[in-house]
Amino acid sequence: MDHVPLFVPTRSTCGGEGLVVQLGHLPSGRRVGIAFTSLARLRTASGPTQDWIRLYDDALRLILAGLGVNAVQVDPERVCLVQRDPQGEQGETKKCRSRSLA
Questions:
Q1: Residues 6 or more apart in contact with residue 18 via CB below 8 angstroms
Q2: The 23-25 sheet, strands edge to edge
Q3: What's the whole-model pTM score?
Q4: What is the C-alpha radius of gyration for the chain, rounded to an integer number of angstroms?
């Protein structure tokens, strides 16, 4: 990947003291990092209120490696973000959105 910063969806940690990159799932269930080449693409896929951060590909991959994730999906057509219950009682849930690049 070129050295161009990507738009990476994030969420606040419990208590709002930090940020966490959001992960997605492939149809196989494998966890992947999610990134977009433009803010418009991120907004189309995730909605206008989605938090984000700009990261270079290598920085994103270092963060993901610490989470045991070794793949990044750039500009996905369908986004399934992995979300954890804030209380940690319900496990993981998925929030899926489809988008059109037209």
A1: 12
A2: 72-74, 31-35, 23-25, 78-84, 92-98
A3: 0.74
A4: 13
